[in-house]
Write a structure and sequence with these properties.
Elements (H helix, E strand, L loop, with lengths): L1 E11 L10 E16 L10 H10 L6 E7 L9 H17 L5 H16 L5 H8 L2 E4 L6 E2 L6 E7 L7 H8 L4 H20 L3 H15 L4 H12 L3 E5 L10 E5 L3 H10 L4 E6 L3
Antiparallel strand pairs: 1-2, 2-3, 2-4, 4-5, 6-8, 6-9, 7-8
Helix pairs in contact: 1-2, 1-3, 2-3, 3-4, 6-7
The chain binds (R)-mevalonate.
């Protein structure tokens, strides 16, 4: 049986979510597919630490089961690839064994895997890939599904893979001004309202983007690109842990005229994806 787990992006709340502020995340159409089958060769200890951890938490031995993993998610860009790989492998191993697995249990097992890579994850990535859809997440609390009665189109622009790991970026933010974290939390509440009421989103995404720049999670080249996009009328923010030295991962872009933004991205040879919030 093939298992699919979606990737995610953060609409708001990266980093501030680590300090107890809310985050808004959305599951993507792109994700990870995993198939588990009987291990005929009896010799496939996966080299990858994350996959080894997924086998460990699922209490399955590599001698017994083999997994094949197909990923549509670029690694390290902030699209939840590590949480989605862990979730898909664990789900596939449970399905192979014929064991039941609740979403809550899967979330807890993915959290164990995330701790290997991240140190102190808030849990927003595991929650987003396990539950999918549009979620409101506060660390340690049950998630809330947000319902929109309209669709918000987004462009996701690849600014390049960050040189820093998520763990390093979270540690860096730990050294920064806590007032910015509080302000980011307030913006997340406003973004929720703007999504629900369908107004004011472009300005709020820019406010959030500029606070994240102030926090220091965007590189100079990402800030320059964001400014160019803002001149074209877009709302722009880094989505995910970000990166300071070179690439900062994904830029989330909203605009009443996304075609213009897409043409700009094309012309500048930027990789981008179109997605949306609020559709099924
Ligand atoms: C990473 O997708 C989100 C961060 O806030 C880290 C976390 O919440 O664990 C940067």
């Amino acid at each position: 049986m093939q298992i699919f787990v979606p990737g995610k992006i953060l609409v708001s709340g990266e980093h501030s979510v680590v300090y107890g502020e809310p985050a808004i995340a959305v599951g993507l159409g792109m994700g990870i597919r995993v198939e588990a089958r009987s291990n005929a060769s009896k010799s496939s200890n996966p080299g990858n630490e994350l996959i080894r951890k997924a086998f460990e938490v699922a209490k399955v031995s590599f001698d017994e089961v083999q997994v094949s993993i197909e990923s549509q998610l670029p690694e390290g860009l902030g699209m939840g690839s590590s949480a989605a790989v862990a979730a898909a492998v664990i789900k596939a191993l449970y399905a192979f064994k014929g064991n039941d697995l609740s979403q809550e249990k899967l979330f807890n097992l993915v959290m164990e895997c995330e701790r290997v890579a991240h140190g102190n994850p808030s849990g927003v990535d595991p929650a987003a890939v396990v539950y999918g859809g549009l979620i409101w997440f506060v660390k340690g609390r049950p998630i809330e599904f947000l319902k929109l009665n309209h669709q918000v189109d987004l462009l996701l622009i690849d600014t390049g893979k960050p040189k820093e790991s998520t763990k390093e970026m979270v540690e860096y933010v730990g050294t920064r001004e806590k007032k910015t974290i509080k302000n980011l939390g307030l913006i997340t509440f406003k973004i929720r309202r703007a999504l629900e009421q369908r107004s004011g989103l472009v300005d709020l995404i820019n406010e959030s983007g500029k606070l994240l720049e102030e926090l220091g999670i965007a590189s100079e080249k990402t800030i320059a690109l964001s400014q160019e996009l803002r001149i074209l009328g877009a709302g722009v923010k880094v989505s995910g842990a970000g990166g300071r030295k070179d690439g900062s991962g994904i830029l989330l872009v909203v605009s009443p005229d996304l075609d213009t933004i897409a043409r700009f991205a094309d012309k500048n040879k930027l990789t981008f994806w179109r997605t949306n919030i609020g559709s099924n």
